[in-house]
Amino acid sequence: MGLINWQELWEIKLQSAHRTELNTVDFWDKRAKGFNENMSQMQNLTKNQLERIQLKPEYTVLDVGAGAGRLTIPIAKRVKHVTAIEPSVNMFSILKSNTTKENLQNITALNRSCEDLLLEDAVQPHDVVVASFSLFMVNIAHVLEKMDTLANKTVYIFVSASTWMHDELQKIVNGDVSPIKSSDYIYVYNILHDLGILANVDIWSSDSTHCYHNLDDATSKFGEMYNIAANKKADLRAYLNKHLVKEDKKLCLKHERKTAMIWWTKT
Predict the structure, then answer these.
(1) CB 201, CB 260: distance < 8 Å
(2) CB under 8 Å to 19, separation ≥6 — which residues?
(3) How many CB atoms lie within 10 A of CB 132?
(4) Measured between alpha carbons, how far is 99 from 94 in angstroms, rounded to an integer?
(5) H/E/C letters for each residue in the chain?
(6) Whether the Cβ atoms of residue 114 and residue 142 lie closer than 8 Å to each other
(7) How far is CA 125 from CA 147, 148, 184, in A?
(8) What pLDDT does residue 110 have?
(9) Strongest mean pLDDT among 51-55, 231-235, 252-256
């Protein structure tokens, strides 16, 4: 451990930004349907991620926090087998449905939490381990260490390199602004360093666009995603009205985001 306790700072960051609920099944159970519907708006992110993950037809891949299968399914089309870990019951159900629609026979989906990886023999080692915006557990160091032991070749972790939420929106959602504004990747990288894992970092910028039928639709979906209290709906509506732009008969929220891929190869 160095002079800075990065694991402790990570815990403080999650709690001060009110993000600990992102590691609960209930949070994703409520948002699974909307998340699945929005996957088509994340095609650019998916493309950039797949271009950076080194895969071979004979590889096996472990996808930690697979969600609805945004990465699981295209990865499965390129490798021998994928094991997808997804704790949310509703998200897991959608993942299974999406897998069936693609007629893929080389995906094993497990309705288990990321922390279950810490259990002895819960999952066998794979050639590649991937986690895409799915590591929100408080004790992230233990999970990162386990992911390293489960990878025979390479680990790829995708996290935000931008601030998680704009200050204006965070005030509406939480009533305050987190005093710690450093990007997620800084914590993950340094926690890995404290574990003796010298990782690489690749950061790129991309335009994030989410479109809605109208202002009511945007307000409703944002309210559901961020669990906005009824007395804050007017503030949310005013925020969206200011930032949404018209595009192809829809209202779209556009902003530039930075994504970090933290990766290392096993020796």
Answers:
(1) yes
(2) 13, 136, 164
(3) 23
(4) 8
(5) CCCCCHHHHHHHHHHHCCCHHHHCHHHHHHHHHHHHHCHHHHHHHHHHHHHHCCCCCCCEEEEECCCCCCCHHHHHCCCCEEEEECCCHHHHHHHHHHHHHCCCCCEEEECCCHHHHHCCCCCCCEEEEEEECCCCCCCHHHHHHHHHHCEEEEEEEEEECCCCCCHHHHHHHHCCCCCCCCCHHHHHHHHHHHCCCCCEEEEEEEEEEEEECCHHHHHHHHHHHHCCCHHHHHHHHHHHHHHCEEECCEEEEEEEEEEEEEEEECC
(6) no
(7) 9, 9, 26
(8) 96
(9) 51-55
CB atoms within 10 A of CB 178: 20
Give the pairing of strands 250-265 and 245-247: antiparallel
Q: Which CATH number fits domain 6-207+258-265: 3.40.50.300, 3.65.10.10, 3.40.50.2300, 3.40.50.150?
A: 3.40.50.150
Q: Which residues contact 180 (CB under 8 A, 6 or more apart)?
A: 9, 12, 13, 16, 17
Mean pLDDT of the chain: 89
Domain-wise residue ranges, the chain: 6-207+258-265
* Residue 164, amino acid: W
Q: What is the pLDDT of residues 207-245, one digit of tens each?
A: 778 888 999 998 988 887 777 888 888 989 998 999 999
Which of 148, 15, 39, 56 lies closest to 91, judged by CA? 39
pLDDT digit string (tens) for 161-212? 987 667 787 777 777 665 555 689 999 999 999 999 999 999 999 777 888 8
